[in-house]
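For reproducibility, we list the full input for the zinc ion complex.
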Amino acid sequence: MIKESHLRGLLGPFFFRQIEGPKKMNKALWTISAAALIISGCDNQQPPSALDDGMAADTVVINAQVYTDGTSGSLQSGFAVSDGVFVAVGSNEAVEAYIGPNTDIINAQGNAVLPGLIDAHAHPWQGGEKVLYMCNFAFSATPDELASTIKRCAEDPSASEWIVGGQWNSNFFVDNDIDSPRAFLDAVSNGHPVFLDDDSAHHGWANTRALALAGVALSADTADPEGGKFVRDAAGVPNGVLLESAAGFVSSVIPPRSDEEKIAAIAAVSDIALGYGVTAFGDARVPKAAMAAYQAADERGLLNVHAVLYQQSYGHGADWKPLEPVAAYDARAAQFNSPNTYGKAIKFFLDGVPTASRSAMMLADYTTDEKHPEPTKGMQMIATDDLFNAVAAFDRDGYLIKIHTAGDGSVKLALDAIEHTRRENGSAGLPISLAHAGYVDESDIPRFAALNAVADFTPYLWYPRPIIDSVIQSVGEPRGSRYWPTKDLLAAGAPINGGSDWPAAAADMNPWPAIESLVTRRHPTNGSDETFWLEQAVSLDTAMSMWTTRSADVMNIGDLTGSITVGKSADFIVLDVDLHQIPIEAISEIAPQQTWFKGRMVAGER
Ligand SMILES: [Zn+2]
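The corresponding predicted structure, in tokenized form, follows.
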């Protein structure tokens, strides 16, 4: 793992503060070797010498509040780990039987120990590259702040040819009158081509040089690419704002990172995840080059999480191509196989996002205003027949499938596709995830359980915040505020998971504020009492299960991880508090003291 001091150097002080969390870690936990235990005369009932050799464990945790599945109903006192898996879970007496002369003993002194958390939907390879290589500014950046950040990056003599950065707020061009977005960047780009992602990571913003390098002619005759739009000025000339596949059309000419840079990004994101206590994640769009980087990082011991890699389906932007046969995805899954990755998974993008871009596919029209005078229901990016055929074909071959469905229209259509698939293939297939299913027509809520379709609850948009304002303004009331019906879906038996979607929409991968705000539906840190559809609040136990067992099950890794259970991978975290005894407002401040993966401590301190 990257040591903390190294990480600080790599990520800079701002990022490190986020990893460390707002709370000072205390040193209450202590660990001792079995030998020291005997010498100091502690009253260990089970002298190591009395132990039958075969039973001695590598590590034994005692005196803990072990929440074996993260919830308050699953309490035990300790467990034993051998060869990277849990071999016993139970009372102190039961697990002390596993202590031998070389056993590493962790006395948790009454603190909470949980299974490693699971972020079922993130974009980790992109997050790693953002942290290491991009020109970054806050979602809340004003035009002045954004301009000065780009200027600083563009004037850095060590800057590479392209300045790539982000992420501007979804409402940036609604809230700020910017005559020519590309000229705005030209003024601070110091001759560099500039490309900036928005906070949903669906849309882009480029300067004139970047458009030229991508072959986008500054003419009203320039056609929009398939599945995207060039936003235009009054004369119909592309103004630099790029919606959906138009963003990929431009960004695809940015020279790719080197193999070593890509591998470093995977290593960095593995450490970032572990710092938050996340020991498994789903990467929701993985092109071939990123699969190769995951494999190489894993082979070097730099990937210390279980990673489910949802292969990119159609390609992106200018790389758009027809769907390849299932065998092509099978071949890549086999070629890039490695111990901690799982590549028999695929991601489809059925629509966009319900922000000011109005690109998510809704059942009813978005609002109209001066800047959006045409009524629209958003975009459908895969033809209905193609979607039905593709979902059925990949399900038949045993794939984990994730479909991006950010509007109630795309949710309904995807459920129709799954219904078709279950009819064709039988219902024994794997769960099929509907990513960002925050808007769900009431009549569709019972269909999730019936079809084994997953409400993939990402990103953390269930409390008041700027991107929510953009969404509500675009979707319109009253339905705009009926977003993330967690309680209704759970009551209807829907499979459901949590996930950050980072670096899209979430400022970081930290699951703790998300867990707290599922319970409070309030902003986790700003102290405001304002809530967002409070009727949909769930219990802490339910929220925890969305980052443990539920997420494991929907990613088909429930036999491998997600709970502290004999036979599963010894992935666990040690806290310096008991999360089920502290006020709910303190959950967002949790920073794990230690994170263990496959029986090894991979983050934190002892
Ligand atoms: Zn995503």
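The longest helix spans residues 408-425. The chain has a mean pLDDT of 90. Both points were considered when choosing residues for closer inspection.
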